[in-house]
Amino acid sequence: MELPAGTVVELRPGKWQLRPGSVGDVIHHVRVVKVHESLTTGWMWVYAHDVTCAWPEADCAVPWCLEFLASEVALRAAVDGGR
Ligand SMILES: [Zn+2]
Questions:
Q1: pLDDT value at position 80?
Q2: Is 2 part of a structural domain of the chain?
Q3: Cα 29 to middle of ligand 1, angstroms
Q4: d(Cα 37, Cα 15) in Å, to the nearest integer?
């Protein structure tokens, strides 16, 4: 699936993983840089900045500061919600 750069995604507990098997238990709001297929069906690697991150204006000098697995369903909902 395609996820335009800059899409803001709300990641609810259980909808993202720091790494396979490590399910997140807090809500994250992130701004997507790019997404990548993962080896786990239904999950995609996401490279993003936190919405509170100052990128690209200031402090955050890296291309992305967050890397995690996200539920494809949650990502799709974010795309649809942005239309
Ligand atoms: Zn950042």
A1: 84
A2: no
A3: 12
A4: 16
Tally of domains within the chain: 1
Between the CA of 78 and the centroid of ligand 1 the distance, in Å, is 20
Domain assignment of residue 59, yes or no: yes
The string of pLDDT tens digits covering residues 28-39 is: 999 999 999 999
End-to-end CA distance of the chain: 15
pTM for this structure?
Answer: 0.86
Q: Please state, in angstroms and rounded to a whole number, the distance separating the CA atoms of residues 38 and 64.
A: 18
- C-alpha of residue 9 to centroid of ligand 1, in Å: 15
User: What is the rounded average pLDDT of the residues 49-65?
Assistant: 78
In this structure, is residue 16 part of a structural domain?
A: yes
CB 11 within 8 A of CB 32: no
The domain in which residue 51 lies consists of 8-81
